[in-house]
Amino acid sequence: MAKTLIVGEIQKGGLRESTLELVAIARKLGGEITSLLIGSGIGAAAENLAKKGGGRVLVADDASLANYTADGHARAIRLAIDAEKPELVLIANTPIGWDVAGKLAAALDCGIATDVIKIEQDGSDLVFVRRMFNAKFDARLRVSGSPRIATVQPGAAEAYSGSEAGSVAKLDGVGGDSRTKFVEVRTAAAGGHDLTKAEIIVSGGRGLQKPENFDAVLKPLVEALGAQMGASRPVVDAGWLPHEYQVGSSGQIVSPKLYVAVGISGAIQHLVGMKSSNFIVAINKDPDAPIFEVADVGIVGDLFEVVPALAAAVKTAKGG
Ligand SMILES: Cc1cc2nc3c(=O)[nH]c(=O)nc-3n(C[C@H](O)[C@H](O)[C@H](O)COP(=O)(O)OP(=O)(O)OC[C@H]3O[C@@H](n4cnc5c(N)ncnc54)[C@H](O)[C@@H]3O)c2cc1C
To answer: How many angstroms is it from 160 CA to the middle of ligand 1?
Structure first.
């Protein structure tokens, strides 16, 4: 790989973890690395990225870039691409990343692979791996032309932890008018169902089939274990449970002592949210479900039989 441009992301004033994951991927591929950070007053974050393996860090620093707009970000990234001529552009598959990446690919008329979980070197070519059909298959994609854009799932790689001597340079010509106007950020109310502090979580997925089964089937196990209830995204999207129950890349990132995944396939976006749990139990009727790849104990069976039996066994063990 001759040259990679990493588009980093700032979150709450610091580097988003996914930025250092992109650094790890780029360093594994080898070649020259340039990074780009976009925002306002982000000098310290840029210095930090330079020390943490981001190579030469370009800073698009302008008051008009304080809040994300697709226009402002796309303009800054295009300036960096024009200046650096990278062969590969890495962007995290976050809400900002997936919004800007498509716009960028269309504007540059270049190829893009989205939702990537792995990038492999194959001779002089690259193969982009992404999950398909609810993680039942891995697609292996080649993208022709230069530059190529890849959006990479947060959590797909361990964050780079080395320290390097990088440098920081200002990117000129950024900022200016945008057709999109930033209005406000609305943050969900704090409190409520905070799974990040739970010691035991029992999460239910689409395998539970209907909302009533969360009370009828899952809740007795939740109560027997003294756990909190979690859910996969389709459960939340269907309105069966509120968003604060969602575990995963677009929900809560949890690391309880015990995580029980019930009727959850184990898509990468769910795994990102729970794979650092201390002990994982998965219940699924499909022996090939990807959730078993991260499970310490896997139970292949019908959840409608396994979960009530487990709840009864826990109660008995606790003397209840
Ligand atoms: C940008 C983006 C962000 C996302 N963010 C998230 C996120 O934050 N969190 C998240 O969870 N997902 C997220 N997703 C969705 C994710 O890709 C998957 O679609 C989702 O995790 C699948 O949910 P599931 O496992 O409940 O459903 P499915 O994939 O449908 O799996 C259901 C599972 O239940 C099993 N099952 C069915 N019946 C039974 C039974 N009777 N007994 C035992 N097992 C049974 C099946 O074998 C299957 O494995 C995101 C997707 C995108 C594109």
So the answer is: 29
- Nearest atom of ligand 1 to the alpha carbon of 302: 42
pLDDT of residue 124: 86
How many other CB atoms are found less than 10 A from the CB of residue 305?
11
- Inter-residue contact 259 to 295 (CB < 8 Å): no
pLDDT at 1: 67
Considering only CA atoms, which of 196, 311, 208, 217 is closest in space to residue 265?
208
DSSP state letters, 184-241: ---PPPSSSS-GGG-SEEEEE-GGG-STHHIIIIIHHHHHHHT-EEEE-HHHHHTTSS
pLDDT < 70 regions, the chain: 1, 134-136, 188-191
pLDDT of residue 155: 78
What is d(CA 278, CA 296) in angstroms, rounded to the nearest whole number? 9
The pLDDT of residue 188: 65
Unique residue bearing structure tokens 């739970």: 198
Q: Could you tell me the distance, in angstroms and rounded to a whole number, from the CA of residue 232 to the centre of ligand 1? A: 6
CA distance between the termini of the chain = 61
The per-residue pLDDT for range 106-133, each reduced to its tens digit, is: 999 999 999 899 999 998 899 999 987 7
Atom of ligand 1 nearest to the CA of 93: 1
Q: What distances in angstroms separate CA 154 from CA 111, 200, 281, one per listed residue?
A: 21, 24, 23
In the reported structure, the alpha carbon of residue 229 is separated from the centroid of ligand 1 by a whole-number distance in angstroms of 16
Q: Are 87 and 3 spatial neighbours (Cβ–Cβ below 8 Å)? A: yes
Distance 209 CA to ligand 1 centre (A): 12
- Binding pocket residue ranges, ligand 1, CB within 6 Å: 134, 205-207, 232-234, 246-251, 263-265, 267, 269-270, 273, 283-286, 289, 302-304
pTM: 0.73
Q: Are 264 and 203 in contact (CB under 8 A)?
A: yes
**Mutual orientation of helices 95-108 and 70-84 as an angle, nearest 10°?**
60
The residue whose CA is least distant from atom 31 of ligand 1 is 265
**3-state SS, residue 109:** coil
